[in-house]
C-alpha cells in the first residue's frame, strides 16, 4: 500500500449522530483543523446499514464518505461483522455463540458470533458483497477494515463438527490422534473423530494436545471467516487492500496466520501509562509494535489508540501533556504509517461514553486534547519521507504465541506463573536499552539475517526450530536460549533422551532438572571470578540445573543444594556461540549481559555515547535517508549531549536535550 501522507484520524461513528446534522457538519471542520486525513467508518453499523433483513440503507454512509472526501478526508471502510443486528439473532439463533460450558449466549454485546454458522456466513457475505459493489471502487475508500478485533471461540454443535473435520484433516486416522495426544493416560482413548469434543470446564481440559489443537482450530476457523469476508468484499473486483485490527498481546489467535491473508497489518494499542515508570510501559508497547511489524516485515498501521484516557482500565489516568505525541511517534518510530485514534467523537451513551476522543462531549476544539492532536497532525504532515521506509534489525527476539499456549497449559514446575511475556519483555528492553532496533518474531520465521537471536523460555519446539538454531549457530550466529526450553514437541509431548532437544551438543549441556521457586523465594547467580566478572544478580521463579559437557560456566548459582553449579553458560559451536540462561534473573542481569553480547556479536548501536535512562531510540531507512528517532519517556528534561548525533534535525530544536516526552527526529 503506497500512501502519500501518514494517516491521521481514527474510528468515527456517524451512525450515532444521524439525528444531529449540525454535529456532523462541525466534525468535518474540526477534522480539518486537526489535520485529520482519514477516518474508519462502519465497524458497528450493521443495524443501520440493514435495518431489516435484506433491506439495505447505504445513503447515509455514501453521503458522509462523499462529504469527508470533499474535505480531503479518506475513509477506511469496515465490514460490519463485529456486531450483528437483533433481527438476525432472533430469527437465526445459530449465529449466537455457545460458551465452553455449552450455554448459548443471548443477544447482546459484540464480537460474540459463531464463525462456523452457515447463516452468519451467508448474511455477512451478502452485506459485504453489496458494500463492495457500492464502495469497492470509490476513490475515497483506501482500505477495507475487516470486522473488528476478531477473537473468542464458539462451542456450538456446528463448531464441534468443524473441529472434528479439522482433526481428521490434520491426523488422517484416530490412532494418530491418540498417539499424538497420549490419550492412554487416564483412559482417554478415542475410537472415532465423532467422539471428540472441544475443551470444556465441565469436560476435558487436561489432554494438552487437545487443548492446543482446539486453539489452532479456532485460529484457522477465524482466519477462514476473515478470508470469506474478504472474498465477498472483493467480489465486485475491488482492488482496495485489506486489513483487520489486531490486539495487544492477544493470546486467542495465532496472528502469523491472520497476517498471511490480509494486505497490511494493523493493531490497536492502549498502554496503561503512568502506573509505573513510563519507559517500562514504552518498552512493553514497543515490543508489540515490533511484533506487529515483523508479522510481514513491512510497515504497519496503528489503527486505534486513545487520545486521552480510556474508560475500561482499572484507573483511567489522563495522559500527561506530551504523552499523546510520544505514544503516537513511538508507533511511527517502530514502523507505523499511521496515527489513528479511537474515537473521533465521544459517544453519548452506552459502554464507551467516557472513553477519550478527539472531540469530547463539550463539543469544541478549544480543549487541551484537541490542541495536542492538532499539533501532532501538523508534525506528521512534515515527514512524508518516512512513508515506505523500513526497519533494519540485526537482532531478533523469538516470542511465539503457540509456545505461549503450551507454556500456560503445561502443568509444570510453577503453576502460579511462568511469566513468558515478562521474560520476553526483560530481554527485549535490555536489548533496546543498548540503542538498537529489534525484530520480534515467531518460530516459523527465518533466523539467517540476524547476528544475535534471543529466545526466552522456548518450551515447545515447533516448525523445525531446533534445526534452524543449529544451522544459525554453526554458521556464526550468537544465540541465547532461556531456561525451560526445548522440552516438548508441537503436541506438548515431552521429548525423550534429554533437553534442550537435539541441541545438547550445540549448547554443550543438558538440563537435568528444574526447580520452581515460591513467590517469596529467590536464588542468585555469581559471575565466575576468573572471567573477571564478580557481579551478583538475584534470580527467581525458575532455576534449571545444568550438566555441562563442552559449555563453560559464566555464572553459577549462589544458593541451595545446587550452589556453585552452572546457571549461565557459553558454548562455541561451529563458527558461532550458543548461550544458555538457566534462571529467571533480574532485569539488571539482562541489561549487563546483552550489553557485552552485542559487542561480541558485532552489533553496532544506532548512536554512540551513553544513552540516559528513559530514552528510546529507533531508526527507519527510506529512499531519502535514515530517520533516527529519540524519545524521552521521563517527565522531565534530559541532557543527551553525551550522544553523538549527526544529521539534520527534522523535528525538535536541540540535539543536546530532550524535553519531557519529546521526540527528536534526525535525518542522515
Ligand atoms: C477496542 C475496539 C474499539 C473500542 C476500543 C476502546 O480496541 O476495537 O471498538 O471498543 O477498544 O478502547
Ligand atoms: Zn459455533
Brief account:
The protein has 668 residues and is of the alpha/beta class. The protein is built from 17 helices and 26 strands.
Features:
668 residues, alpha/beta, six-stranded parallel beta sheet, 26 strands, 30% helix, binds alpha-D-galactopyranose
Description:
Helices cover 30% and strands 19% of the residues. It contains 17 helices and 26 strands. β18 (566-573) and β19 form a beta hairpin. The longest helix is centred in the N-terminal third of the chain and has 26 residues, at 208-233. The protein is globular. The mean pLDDT is 97. Bound molecules: alpha-D-galactopyranose and zinc ion. The site of zinc ion (ZN) has 8 residues, from α6.
Question: How would you summarize the topology of this molecule?
Answer:
Elements: E1 7-11, H1 21-33, E2 38-41, H2 46-49, H3 59-70, E3 74-78, H4 86-91, H5 118-135, E4 141-145, H6 157-171, H7 174-181, H8 208-233, E5 242-243, E6 245-247, H9 255-259, E7 266-268, H10 278-296, E8 301-304, H11 323-333, E9 338-342, H12 368-381, E10 395-398, H13 401-409, H14 420-432, E11 439-441, E12 452-455, H15 465-474, E13 478-482, H16 504-507, E14 509-516, E15 523-527, E16 536-548, E17 552-557, E18 566-573, E19 576-581, E20 583-585, H17 587-600, E21 615-622, E22 625-632, E23 638-639, E24 648-651, E25 657-658, E26 663-667
Parallel strand pairs: 1-2, 1-9, 2-3, 3-4, 4-5, 6-7, 7-8, 10-11, 10-12, 12-13, 13-19
Antiparallel strand pairs: 14-16, 15-16, 15-17, 16-20, 17-18, 18-19, 21-22, 22-26, 23-25, 24-26
Helix pairs in contact: 5-8, 8-13, 10-14, 14-17
The chain binds alpha-D-galactopyranose (GLA) and zinc ion.
The site of alpha-D-galactopyranose (GLA) has 9 residues, from loops.
Amino acid at each position: 500500500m503506497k500512501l502519500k501522507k501518514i494517516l491521521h484520524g481514527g474510528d468515527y461513528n456517524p451512525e450515532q449522530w444521524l439525528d444531529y446534522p449540525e454535529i456532523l457538519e462541525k466534525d468535518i471542520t474540526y477534522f480539518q483543523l486537526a489535520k485529520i486525513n482519514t477516518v474508519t467508518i462502519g465497524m458497528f453499523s450493521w443495524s443501520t446499514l440493514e435495518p431489516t433483513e435484506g433491506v439495505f440503507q447505504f445513503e447515509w454512509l455514501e453521503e458522509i464518505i462523499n462529504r469527508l472526501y470533499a474535505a480531503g478526508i479518506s475513509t477506511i471502510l469496515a465490514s460490519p461483522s463485529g456486531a450483528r443486528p437483533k433481527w438476525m439473532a432472533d430469527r437465526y439463533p445459530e449465529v449466537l455463540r455457545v460458551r465452553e460450558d455449552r450455554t448459548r449466549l443471548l443477544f447482546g454485546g459484540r464480537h460474540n458470533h459463531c464463525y462456523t454458522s452457515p447463516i452468519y456466513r451467508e448474511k455477512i457475505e451478502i452485506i459485504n458483497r453489496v458494500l463492495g459493489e457500492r464502495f469497492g471502487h470509490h476513490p475515497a475508500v483506501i482500505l477495507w477494515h475487516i470486522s473488528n478485533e476478531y477473537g473468542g471461540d464458539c462451542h456450538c454443535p456446528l463448531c464441534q463438527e468443524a473441529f472434528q473435520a479439522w482433526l481428521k484433516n490434520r491426523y488422517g486416522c484416530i490412532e494418530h490422534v491418540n498417539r499424538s495426544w497420549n490419550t492412554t493416560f487416564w483412559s482417554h482413548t478415542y475410537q472415532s473423530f465423532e467422539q471428540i469434543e472441544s475443551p470444556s470446564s465441565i469436560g476435558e481440559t487436561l489432554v494438552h494436545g487437545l487443548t492446543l489443537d482446539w486453539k489452532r482450530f479456532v485460529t484457522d476457523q477465524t482466519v477462514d471467516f476473515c478470508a470469506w469476508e474478504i472474498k465477498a468484499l472483493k467480489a465486485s473486483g475491488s482492488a482496495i487492500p485489506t486489513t483487520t485490527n489486531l490486539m495487544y498481546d492477544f493470546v486467542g489467535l495465532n496472528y502469523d496466520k491472520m497476517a498471511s491473508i490480509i494486505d497490511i497489518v494493523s493493531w490497536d494499542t492502549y498502554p496503561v501509562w503512568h502506573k509505573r515508570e513510563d519507559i517500562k510501559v514504552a518498552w512493553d508497547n514497543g515490543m508489540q509494535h515490533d511484533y506487529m511489524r515483523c508479522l510481514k516485515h513491512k510497515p504497519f498501521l496503528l489503527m486505534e489508540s486513545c487520545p486521552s484516557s480510556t474508560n475500561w482500565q482499572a484507573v483511567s489516568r489522563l495522559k500527561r501533556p506530551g504523552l499523546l505525541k510520544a505514544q503516537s511517534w513511538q508507533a511511527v518510530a517502530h514502523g507505523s504509517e499511521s496515527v489513528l485514534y479511537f474515537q473521533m467523537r465521544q459517544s453519548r451513551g452506552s459502554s464507551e461514553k467516557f472513553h477519550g476522543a478527539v472531540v469530547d462531549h463539550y463539543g469544541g476544539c478549544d480543549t487541551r486534547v484537541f490542541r495536542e492532536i492538532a499539533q501532532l497532525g501538523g508534525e506528521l504532515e512534515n515527514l512524508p519521507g518516512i512513508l515506505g521506509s523500513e526497519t533494519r534489525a540485526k537482532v531478533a527476539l523469538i516470542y511465539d504465541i503457540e509456545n505461549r499456549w503450551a507454556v500456560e497449559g503445561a502443568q509444570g514446575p510453577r503453576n502460579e506463573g511462568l511469566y513468558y511475556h515478562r521474560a520476553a519483555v526483560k530481554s527485549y528492553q535490555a536489548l533496546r536499552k543498548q540503542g538498537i532496533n529489534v525484530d520480534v518474531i515467531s518460530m516459523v520465521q527465518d533466523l539467517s539475517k540476524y547476528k544475535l537471536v534471543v529466545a526466552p523460555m522456548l518450551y515447545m519446539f515447533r516448525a523445525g526450530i531446533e534445526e534452524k538454531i543449529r544451522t544459525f549457530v554453526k554458521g556464526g550466529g550468537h544465540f541465547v536460549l532461556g531456561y525451560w526450553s526445548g522440552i516438548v514437541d508441537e503436541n506438548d509431548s515431552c521429548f525423550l533422551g534429554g533437553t534442550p532437544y537435539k541441541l545438547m551438543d550445540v549448547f554443550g549441556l543438558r538440563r537435568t532438572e528444574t526447580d520452581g521457586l515460591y513467590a517469596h523465594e529467590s536464588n542468585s547467580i555469581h559471575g565466575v571470578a576468573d572471567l573477571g566478572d564478580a557481579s551478583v544478580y538475584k534470580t527467581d521463579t525458575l532455576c534449571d540445573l545444568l550438566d555441562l559437557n563442552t559449555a563453560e560456566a559464566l555464572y553459577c548459582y549462589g544458593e541451595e543444594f545446587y550452589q556453585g553449579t552452572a546457571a549461565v553458560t557459553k558454548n562455541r559451536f561451529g563458527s558461532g556461540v550458543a548461550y544458555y540462561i538457566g534462571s529467571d534473573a533480574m532485569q539488571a542481569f539482562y541489561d549487563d549481559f546483552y550489553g557485552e553480547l552485542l559487542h561480541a556479536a558485532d552489533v553496532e548501536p544506532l548512536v554512540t555515547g551513553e544513552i540516559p535512562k528513559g530514552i528510546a531510540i529507533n531508526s527507519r531507512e527510506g529512499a531519502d535517508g535514515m530517520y533516527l528517532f529519540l524519545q524521552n519517556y521521563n517527565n522531565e528534561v534530559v541532557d543527551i549531549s553525551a550522544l553523538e548525533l549527526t544529521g539534520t534535525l527534522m523535528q525538535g530544536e536541540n540535539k543536546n536535550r530532550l524535553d519531557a516526552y519529546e521526540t527528536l527526529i534526525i535525518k542522515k
